[in-house]
Structures are given as C-alpha cells and as structure tokens.
Amino acid sequence: MLLSEGQMSDYKGAVLMIDALLNAKTMLGDRGYDADWFRAALNERGIAPCIPSKANRKVLIPHDTMLYRQRHRIENMFGKLKDW
Fold first, then answer.
1. 65: helix, coil or strand?
2. E strands along 33-84, which residues?
C-alpha cells in the first residue's frame, strides 16, 4: 500500500510500486495507468493489464470489459476504508 498526496499522478505512484507488485494474473487499473511503459512492465512480469485506453490514445488497446466492471468492488472497499 502506498499513501501519497491527493494530487499525485497515477504514473508517479506506478513507478514507485512497480517493483513491489506481487505475482498476479491480471492487474485492474483505471485510465490513469494507461501508459505503454507500464503495460510493458506488467507484461514482463507475466501480468496481463486490464486497463482501458485513454480518450486521447490514437490506437485503442482492447481490455476485458467484463472483468473491468468488477473494479467497482475495489473502489467500494477503499470508500469504506476512507469512511472508517
């Protein structure tokens, strides 16, 4: 877990945490993590990125939309932690 400032970009947080990622099959991330270098780093570790493309990406990269819809469970958990 990385606690950062509220206005810190997702890219900066990803750089700090990339080496600490555990073995996983897939990583769910929002559009803030849509970067070629981040996708390549995940693929090097054998982790399939499930990250939708940013709106300004010229060639959209497909992702598993059904799996991505489950991301709300993670968001809900963090919402509960913030309320606690």
1. helix
2. 48-50
pLDDT of residue 40: 93
In the numeric block, which tokens belong to residue 28?
């769910």
**Measured between alpha carbons, how far is 58 from 45 in angstroms, rounded to an integer?**
26
Segment 16-45 shows an average pLDDT of 87
pTM score: 0.76
pLDDT, residue 61, reads: 93
Please compute, for residue 8, the number of CA atoms within 13 A of its CA located in the half-sphere on the CB side: 12
The candidate with the shortest Cα–Cα distance to 49, out of 8, 21, 73, is 21
Report the SS3 class of residue 35.
coil
What Å distances lie between residue 1 and 35, 56, 66, CA to CA? 21, 29, 26
Q: How far apart are CA 18 and CA 81, in angstroms?
A: 23
